[in-house]
Structures are given as structure tokens and as C-alpha cells.
């Protein structure tokens, strides 16, 4: 005899429902991720053991759920960053996110991975917030105009390095001699609150590199300095102040019809001399560990300069590409056809123009003439390179013609 199954009590039904409820945001996010992986509502409901309507309800509130997770994540990170010591909060449950999940999470909420180092890592936020008021009182008391207030800072420039990364073939990266170009110089940049930028100082490793042999360095668009590591030192900082900054500031203010009364703002970096003095110039050092937050050069001037430097460097490469196209267009069909004579004489037409060798010599003559007009000289190292290229190509410029 079959017995009827007793109906579950309300208490047991409520208990079952309680067990099906999500207890954490993590579980809801995992459910939403399953839906994003094209799992059906029914399949997800079966996986978690509850009604399909519950899955649809969670999906309907996806934006709010994910936003709550992001806010919680950022708040937790900010708290940890401000209090790097041991946490007194209970340990969270171990959450093992896949790389794909974390990548999507970063993109969705615009979270970036950065290294906390240098000035930004040790920035004194309180000092940075208080100093502008002190600075404003100084300006009002001394009566400085924007044209008279300058900020100086230095930055490293990898002048041969185009982009931070690029896509290259793996075999190429492993090739002997492969390395990224990291020739570094230091630039001393200085500008005022009115938007005027001075001629920058440049610190190179060499006092007289081959490229500048027999060149008048006073005519360069930079103030040339050197030291073994291409770093700023107190001596170079003092030289820049007296020989570069002072003359330019005087000329600039004189042309504007303004008095030579200058405020120069600097950070207290090790290479900056603390005993700089010149009549009419006030030196103001920014609070320690606050320069990355308030120094004008760090607020976009240097970053904008480097971006424009890279753009203009790449533009030169683009110009070279257009020269390639121009040279190809100048080549005549008859010349190209004549070059097939040894391999396929039957296809060569009766060519009466200049031979390829004659065209080459004519082009070389014009190039040599232009080089002499421009006053260019060829260094011994460049001559050796030219010799090797001539041997490889069997023909080329003769050194005597370039001397």
C-alpha cells in the first residue's frame, strides 16, 4: 500500500529557500559571468538549484551589482594603500579570478595597473594641499606677474626610443645584437606661468660627440652640458642658472618692458644647488614629497613635450617614406627594363637612354653638390661605414668626392 508523501512544512520550505539565496556579491558575479559565456537562463538556474526567474532578476540588476563590486574593490585598495601595515579586518574569502575575468573587470571599470614608486608613491598630500595658499600670499606680497614666475625641472629623454613597445617577430628579438635604443640624455626644462618656455639645457655623456664636431655649440637650440652619466649635478645646475636661465630671463623681461624681478620655483632634488643667488631672483623650493602633485612641469608640461617630441620624430620617418615614393616615381620604365639584360636579354627593348650606372653617377654628383652647399662634413667613422657599404653594393659614393 502506497503512502502519500507528507507535504513539507513551511519551516522546511523556507529553510530550503534560504539555502538557495546568494550570500555574497562574488556568487552573483560568478552567475552573471556564466550568462556572459552564453549559458542559458535554464542551465544556470539548474546549476545553482533555483528558479529561472531568480536568474533573470539578478541579470536585470547586473549593472548595479558589478558597480557595487567595483566600488568595494576601489575602497579596499585605497584603504590598503593608505594603511600598508597589517590589517585588523578579518581575512576575506579566497577569490581566484581567471585572467579573462580580471581583464574584463579592469576594462569595464577603467582600472589600471600602476607601480607605486618615485615621487608619486611618497607624495605628501597634506603639504601639497596647503602649499598653494602659502604660494598665493607670496605672489601677492611681492607683486609677481605671471611672466616673472618660472618653474624649472629636469627629465630624462631616451631620444632614440620611439615608442614604449611595439610588435616584432620573436626571431628578430632573439637575433644577436638586438636591443631597444636607450640612449639617454637629461633635459632641463624651464617655463613661466604666462606660457613662455626657455631654451632647454641638455646634459649629454660626451663634451664633444662626433655629430657636433666643428660645430658652434652656442648656436644649438639647447644649452649644451655634459657629465659621465648624463645626470644633473649641483655644478651643472649652477652653470645652467647663471649661464642659461639668467641671460634668457633678462632678455625676455626686457623685451616685454618689465623689471627684472623673478621668482624661480624648484624642487629639492639632489642635483639642485641650495645656494643659488642672483640679485633680483628669488629661489623658492617646493615642499618635500609634494612636487609630483603641484609642480607645473609635472602637471603636464613634460608629458606634453615628450608626446610632441615623439610625434615629430615619427613625422620625419613619414617624410622619409614619401621620399621613397618620390624616388620610385622618378625611375623610368626603360631603366628598369634595361636591368633585365643579363638574365633575360630577349625582353629588353632597344634602350637608348642613360644606363643605370650613368643614372647612379648623375644622382651621386647632385647629392655631393648639395652636401657641400649645406656644409656637411663626414666623420672618420662615417667614412668607414660608407666603405663597407660600397664593398657590399659594389658601387657608391667615393670618399674623396665627399671630402
How many structural domains can be distinguished in the coordinates?
3
The general outline is: flat
Mean pLDDT, all residues: 74
Spatial arrangement of strands, main beta sheet: 4-3-2-1-5-6
Number of continuous helical runs: 16
Could you characterize what this model shows?
This protein is α/β, with parallel strands linked by helices and 403 residues long. The chain has three domains: 38 residues; 180 residues, no CATH class; 71 residues, no CATH class. It has 16 helices and six strands. The chain has a six-stranded mixed β-sheet with strand order 4-3-2-1-5-6. A hairpin with an 8-residue loop joins strand 2 and strand 3. Helix 2 packs across helix 5 and helix 3 packs across helix 4. The protein is flat. The N and C termini lie far apart (118 Å).
Protein traits:
16 helices, six-stranded mixed sheet, DDE_SF_endonuclease_dom, 403 residues, 6 strands, alpha/beta, DDE-1 domain-containing protein, 3 domains, DNA binding
Summarize the structure.
The protein has 403 residues and is α/β, with parallel strands linked by helices.
List the helices and strands and how they pair.
Layout: H1 10-20, H2 25-36, H3 41-48, H4 52-60, H5 62-82, H6 99-108, H7 118-121, H8 125-142, E1 149-158, H9 170-173, E2 184-192, E3 201-204, E4 223-226, H10 234-255, E5 262-266, E6 281-285, H11 291-294, H12 301-330, H13 333-338, H14 356-374, H15 380-393, H16 399-402
Helix pairs in contact: 2-5, 3-4
Organism: Leptobrachium leishanense (Leishan spiny toad)
Domain DDE-1: 182-333
Biased composition (Acidic residues): 378-394
Amino acid at each position: 500500500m502506497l503512502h502519500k508523501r507528507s507535504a513539507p512544512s513551511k519551516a522546511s520550505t523556507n529553510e530550503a529557500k534560504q539555502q538557495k539565496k546568494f550570500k555574497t556579491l562574488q556568487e552573483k558575479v560568478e552567475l552573471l559571468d556564466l550568462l556572459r559565456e552564453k549559458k542559458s537562463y535554464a542551465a544556470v538556474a539548474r546549476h545553482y538549484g533555483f528558479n529561472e526567474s531568480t536568474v533573470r532578476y539578478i541579470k536585470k540588476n547586473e549593472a548595479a551589482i558589478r558597480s557595487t563590486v567595483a566600488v568595494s574593490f576601489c575602497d579596499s585598495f585605497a584603504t590598503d594603500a593608505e594603511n600598508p601595515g597589517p590589517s585588523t579586518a578579518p581575512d576575506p574569502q579566497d577569490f581566484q579570478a581567471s585572467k579573462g575575468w580580471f581583464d574584463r573587470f579592469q576594462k569595464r571599470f577603467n582600472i589600471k595597473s600602476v607601480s607605486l614608486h618615485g615621487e608619486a608613491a611618497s607624495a605628501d598630500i597634506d603639504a601639497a594641499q596647503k602649499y598653494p595658499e602659502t604660494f598665493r600670499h607670496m605672489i601677492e606680497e611681492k607683486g609677481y606677474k605671471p611672466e616673472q614666475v618660472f618653474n624649472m625641472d629636469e627629465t630624462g629623454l631616451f631620444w632614440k626610443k620611439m615608442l614604449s613597445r611595439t610588435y616584432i617577430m620573436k626571431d628578430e628579438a632573439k637575433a644577436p645584437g638586438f636591443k631597444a635604443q636607450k640612449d639617454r640624455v637629461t633635459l632641463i626644462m624651464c617655463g613661466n606661468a604666462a606660457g613662455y618656455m626657455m631654451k632647454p639645457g641638455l646634459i649629454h655623456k660626451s663634451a664633444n660627440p662626433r655629430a657636433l664636431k666643428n660645430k658652434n655649440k652656442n648656436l644649438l637650440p639647447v644649452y649644451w652640458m655634459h657629465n659621465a652619466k648624463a645626470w644633473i649635478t649641483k655644478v651643472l645646475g649652477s652653470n645652467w642658472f647663471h649661464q642659461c636661465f639668467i641671460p634668457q630671463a633678462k632678455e625676455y623681461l626686457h623685451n616685454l618692458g618689465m623689471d627684472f624681478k623673478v621668482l624661480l620655483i624648484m624642487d629639492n632634488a639632489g642635483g639642485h644647488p641650495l645656494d643659488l643667488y642672483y640679485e633680483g631672483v628669488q629661489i623658492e623650493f617646493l615642499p618635500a614629497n609634494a612636487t609630483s602633485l603641484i609642480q607645473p612641469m609635472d602637471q603636464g608640461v613634460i608629458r606634453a613635450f615628450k608626446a610632441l617630441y615623439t610625434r615629430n620624430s615619427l613625422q620625419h620617418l613619414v617624410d622619409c617614406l614619401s621620399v621613397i615614393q618620390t624616388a620610385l616615381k622618378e625611375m623610368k620604365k626603360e631603366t628598369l627594363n634595361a636591368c633585365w639584360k643579363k638574365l633575360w636579354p630577349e625582353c629588353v627593348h632597344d634602350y637608348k637612354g642613360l644606363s643605370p650606372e650613368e643614372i647612379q653617377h648623375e644622382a651621386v654628383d647632385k647629392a655631393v653638390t648639395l652636401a657641400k652647399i649645406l656644409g656637411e662634413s663626414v666623420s672618420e667613422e662615417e667614412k668607414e661605414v660608407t666603405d663597407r657599404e660600397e664593398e657590399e653594393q659594389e658601387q657608391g659614393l667615393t670618399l674623396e668626392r665627399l671630402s
